[in-house]
Amino acid sequence: MSRRSTKYLKAALTALHYSGASELLSPMTGGLGAILMLHRVVPGKFEGFSPNRILTITPEFLDQTIRQLIEAGFDILSLDEVAARLKEPAKISRPFVAFTLDDAYRDNLEYAAPVFRRYGVPYAVYAPTDYIDGHGDLWWLSLEQAIAKLGHVDCVIDARALSLPSATVAEKDATYHSIYWRLRKTDETVARTITAELCRKAGVDTRHLCRDLVLDWDGLRQLAADPLVTIGAHTQRHYALSKLGAGAARHEMTASIARLEAELRRAVKHFSYPFGDVCSAGQREFDMASELGLTTAVTTRKGVIGARHAASPTALPRVSLNGDYQLLHYTKTLLSGAPFALYDLAKSILPRAIAA
Ligand SMILES: [Zn+2]
């Protein structure tokens, strides 16, 4: 998301909150509950060029969010409990929330686990197995490191030569987002090759990144030993499944599930689609997840969980706890579902305005 759209969304969330509109809309839009999406939980503030800060919240914000949810009367459920509730929506009297963390970053064990334990709150961690092995490619973070070093960025993506300024923080932000979104649309192997080439030009060695930032098998086993934790699969290589042939996509799912089950000696019944947006996971992948017998599978499509999702437990939307929105009133407004309902409404009325 660009800085400008982030600014507009923050303004809209604040307006919804202070106008009381989100609470008025809540009975219509709030649904049964929400699955929250997190990535990293790390103390401190980011300064300057740090486009991936959106993936990080602080332990303090996580603590405040959990406390706020408990005080507001939400049930905080494991994914198995979410699936059970979806089967009997009529029995639901209180809204629910489930916490999920993607990519199995080391900080989940160090900083997030103690907060969840403090409140006895269940959560799920989705682990991409190549990354746990230490050889996954965190290309979105490598790209950030390369652009941080480069004063100008030249590369070719999909036969288009790009020459972008990268001297100031604003230029680096614009260049990062321009390249990142182009790479998100291109072939996964090509995206990683282009990022590796930019790192080479910048003199940045990111081979250690995965080992430094993502849990190894011992760490994952330590996390999994906590009865509050559900470990879910997140493929092997963290490729957008829609970009792969059906056989390769299915293999990414089955091989990662089998590996986690062998390493952790437990059934793995939950899954998160890498990147998870409409371009990265669609009906083909949702069907595959059902055929594999998964209990739930989550996307990064934005939305709260309603009764209709009982029919599609392998295509569940989530609400992002995003590093750019670390204020409790944003979370409360997002959980009301109002922003998503308004977005859907605006999209149906103004398709061209939204697409622009
Ligand atoms: Zn991921």
Short description:
The protein has 356 residues and is of the alpha/beta class.
Structure explained in plain terms:
By secondary structure, the chain is an alpha/beta fold. The protein folds into 2 domains: 31-135 and 215-335, Glycoside hydrolase/deacetylase (TIM Barrel), CATH 3.20.20.370; 139-202, no CATH class. 49% of the residues lie in helices and 16% in strands. It is built from 16 helices and 12 strands. The chain has helices spanning 3-19, 21-29, 59-71, 79-87, 106-119, 129-132, 139-149, 169-185, 188-202, 209-213, 217-224, 246-264, 283-291, 328-335, 338-349, 351-355; strands at 33-38, 40-41, 56-57, 75-76, 96-102, 123-127, 152-157, 160-165, 229-233, 270-272, 296-302, 316-320. The strands form 3 sheets. Strands 1, 4, 5, 6, 9, 10, 11 and 12 form an 8-stranded parallel β-sheet that branches. Strands 2-3 form a two-stranded parallel sheet. Strand 7 and strand 8 form a beta hairpin. The longest helix is centred in the last third of the chain and has 19 residues, at 246-264. The protein is globular, with a radius of gyration of 20 Å. The chain starts with a helix and ends with a helix. Mean pLDDT is 88; it is low at 349-356.
Entry keywords:
356 residues, alpha/beta, TIM Barrel, two-stranded parallel ribbon, 2 domains, 8-stranded parallel sheet, binds zinc ion, 12 strands
Give the overall form. Answer: globular
Detail the poorly predicted runs.
Answer: 349-356
- The CATH superfamily of the largest domain appears as Glycoside hydrolase/deacetylase
Bound molecules: zinc ion
The CATH class of the largest domain, by name, is Alpha Beta
Distance between the termini: 13 Å
Topology as a string of helices (H) and strands (E): HHEEEHEHEHEHHEEHHHHEHEHEEHHH
CATH topology assignment of the largest domain:
TIM Barrel
| Strand residue content | 15-25%
How many domain regions?
Answer: 2
User: CATH architecture of the largest domain, please?
Assistant: Alpha-Beta Barrel
Number of strands: 12
Mean pLDDT: 88
Helicity level, as a percent range? 40-55%
Classification by helices and strands: alpha/beta
Radius of gyration, in angstroms, nearest whole number: 20 Å
